[in-house]
Amino acid sequence: MSDLPRKAVTRTAKLAALPLGMAGRATWGLGKRIGGYSAELVGQELQQRTAEQLFKVLGELKGGAMKFGQVLSVFESALPEEVAGPYRAALTRLQDAAPPMPVATVHAALAERMGEDWRELFEEFDDKPSAAASIGQVHRGVWHDGRPVAVKVQYPGAGEALLSDLNQLGRFVRLLGPLIPGMDFKPLVSELRDRISEELDYELEADAQRTYAAEFGDDPDVRVPDVVYQCDQVLVTEWLEGVPLAEVIRDGTDEERDRAGQLLARFLFSGTARTGLLHADPHPGNFRLLTDDGPPEAWRLGVMDFGTVDRLPDGLPPTIGTALRMALDGDAASVYELLREEGFVKPTVELDPEAVLEYLVPIIEPAQVDEFVFSRDWMREQAARVADPRSPAYQLGKRLNLPPSYLLIHRVTLSTIGVLCQLGARVRMRDEMEEWVPGFALEDGAAEVAETSA
User: Fold this and answer.
1) How far apart are CA 174 and CA 297, in angstroms?
2) Distances (CA, A) of 35 to 30, 39, 42, 248, 368
């Protein structure tokens, strides 16, 4: 078994097999229908086969293909339930699992990067990976000072694979539209491609993780493991024990879901305000619920993988909080003017301010009440509202503009909402926004409005 299919021809053929396979299964399904099978049974089998092929191809290729699959997986809550079932298991598996590298390849990589005596740095090293992700896999070990550690080893050829995959995905991404109707995949693939170098640079990742670990060192709600060792394509951090968020989504109690959801929202907003960095990869494989810390109110959120971050030294742009506060207050005219000033509405475009306010419902609705219950039903309702070409929301969305500086913030926000819907969590979203989002608190919003008017 090769450690990573790197040749462009091989990878292109595997990726091309996805849309071709979908077409082939559709023909197979038609034959089954002619043979007398019910549409429902044929449809379920088609979805199951497509989901399995999606996981098999994206998981085997790792690299950019799997990264795309991981990002895609957090949006499964937007799928209609009759489609979501077969896809959910396959997409969720992409969050923290992939076929592992052979043991010999791992040992050779560690010897090359840490030195031939690399084993002397460990009291123990588990050859079986505990997780395999898009550009590297993680092994559990015990450092020479007795600390349990996670050892992240980058796949040989990961950089070449990332670029090749994303280039190929960009060529036929429109064919993936049926997976999540209404979602535009082109900007997503483009943004992932732009961040390849950061994702591959473990020194940058170590620096970001050290910043978070220092800031949250004594935090009662969030735990970030310290960096123990870093060299080219190897990153060793403290081991983080806890319940994977994917398990909480699948089997968690209401108490676990609600606590995990509240802490996830808190981390999203407070992390940027406190560190000047935005954790930009919020899929469930990167989080743990630490339930051994005491009663439920003492449970913490463990956060891992800082390979993709957005550097925002001044925190989130105040425009976001100010616009959301105005929207919450129903001030459509002010929201519209602010969005126009920031470039969300181009000078040559005229829109109805009330329609713009209505379009923002998925973002402001969770803050309209003291506690909001996120759910797959709510997510599907919002997705259907903006995905129907006949709806005003769809037409308006096509005319809005997303400035480049907001692209990653927008994706992270939507991804986090997707995870909260997977959790079905009850979250005090307004409390978190008032405390951590500049311009959102009532007094801050009033000050921003006054400043803008002046």
Assistant:
1) 45
2) 9, 11, 11, 42, 52
Q: Tell me how far apart the alpha carbons of residues 51 and 207 are, in angstroms, rounded to a whole number.
A: 37
Residue 279 parent element (H or E):
strand 277-279
CA distance 62 to 94: 10
pLDDT digits over 6-51, tens only? Answer: 444 455 555 455 443 443 433 333 333 333 333 443 344 544 555 5
Domain segments of the chain as ranges: 8-96+164-194, 103-158+197-238, 318-453
DSSP 427: E
The CATH architecture to which 103-158+197-238 belongs is 2-Layer Sandwich (3.30)
CA angle, residues 167, 169, 172, in degrees to nearest 5: 115
pLDDT tens profile 176-227 = 554 444 455 666 666 666 666 677 899 999 999 999 999 999 999 999 999 9
- 114 to 110, 119, 120, 432: CA distances (angstroms): 5, 9, 10, 42
Reference 399, options 337, 450, 352; nearest CA is 352
Q: Is-contact 56 15, C-beta < 8 A?
A: no
Q: Which two tokens stand for residue 447?
A: 């000050």
